[in-house]
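Q: How would the structure tokens look for this protein?
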Amino acid sequence: MISHYGSSSYLASSFSSSDDDDYYDDLEKQVVCQITANNNFCIAQHQNNEGSHRGSIPSHIVVNHDRENADRNLFNDYFAENPRLSASMFGRRFRTGRALFLHIYDVVQRHDNYFVQRRDGLGKLALLGLQKVTVVFRMLAYGVPADATNEYIKIGESTALESLKRFCRVVVEVFGVCYLRSPNADDVARLLHIGESRGFPGMLGSLDCMHWKWKNCPTAWGGQCAGLIGSPTIILEAIADYDLWIWHAYFGLPGSNNDISVLEASHLFADLAAGVSPPANYVIKGKEYNMGYYLADGIYPKWSTIGQTIREPLDPKKQFFSRKQEACRKDVEHAFGVLQSRFSIVAGPAHQWNKRILHDIMTSCIIMHNMIIEDERDFNAPIEEQFEVPNPEVEMVGNDDARFQEFLARHRKIKDKDAHTALRNALIEYLWDEYSIGKLV
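A: Here is the predicted structure in token form.
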């Protein structure tokens, strides 16, 4: 596979290098051998210890979940050399391919010892890490409560919840640097090329917000988290490109805020205002521009970095522009739909009490969403053209006052309403000249 989202980290290079197939094959063999050995040892240990433990609390009923057999069934169903269930069934229930799942499992197990199989106080082997990761994927994919997974995986509710929290934290810590980063110079050049081919030179993606209903919101926070729908929600601001890759995610503001408040609070244009973002140079009707923009709906402010549609357009040129703009900015809404379909936990009401845990769940789902897109695109899509662009060389001013004045100047340029209007008018003329009705097939 060849990844178009390069990074300098070891994980990114190992996952997107040219010998990924060999890496996955070796990883599968190692994991399968380890699981097989543990299964055999669990059976023998279970037979030796059966009937020796009756519970440490008097009159307390001990439930024998028979997790050893559950582990063996899980292995035979999905991870054996000839599994009972097909690869398509694996992808349907885990939302990923088997190779990508084993890659995530291997990294999570090496990063957190909680997912490494240990012995309890009686010397009996505890749950296998594969069972803990599987129960996490079931909760994320289907949005089911923790105790709903006990019948097949044989894992307790408290252990399932702990596995969910630890897994999401590991995914954010390990994969977030690579799969939830800002576009670098090569990414910006590629996005500009795709935007121009779609009729919008300078477009870097589309921007919108999504609300996640918070069922167990504390009563004291209910007022500030309740939005238009009346129920407490938490807002996610995101930017998605043409293939639904999510480049920016800002999650955590209560649902009483609107999209403008979220935009002001997020770090979306922080690098651009600081002067350290990659260059975005393009030309429209002979005029050069050096700041990219994102397509958005009418609620967003008229900034030079945001391309809005036109409400109730009467002129044919403006009507054509509005149709094209509304079609392209649906990318982010499409990404939200795929994210919620792939991980139903973010589509239904959130059952956690801690806001930090909700942030980890949402962020980890976005990260794995990007990983799945990269994995599926590399197998099914042709290799795209590579764009070599040098990284920006930023000359930092030594004087703090001068540096602050430059920051204010860039900030004013971002929020320039006149620049927004001029850019939109230029796009209207460009679209009409290049894609007018007479030229459309």
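The first strand starts at residue 203 and ends at 213.

The longest helix spans residues 20-49.

Upvote if useful.
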